[in-house]
Write a structure and sequence with these properties.
mainly beta, 7-stranded mixed sheet
Amino acid sequence: QVHLVESGGGLAQPGGSLRISCAASGFPFKNYAMTWARQAPAKGLEWVSTTYSNGKDTYYSDSVKGRFTISRDNVRNTMYLQMNDLKPEDTAVYYCNANGVWGQGTQVTVSP
């Protein structure tokens, strides 16, 4: 079955960078669009970014456009989110999604 494991979260200072990963298994990764979403404390789930199967068609929410970059490695069955110029409002649990399944999430905290 579809299995997604996020990793790479942690603490960063405002203006800093982090890269989070989503390792996928149990389905033909290269054929599926992949999505990042996040949930900040006491807020609903927010879509962040999507990459289609070819990795070239990518989309971003306005809140992260120009700062975050989504990518995928269809050999390693892994998706990434490079997050630059982080802001305190980026603090959230970040989840990846594929084929209707969510991973367990990875915490990103942006604080001085």
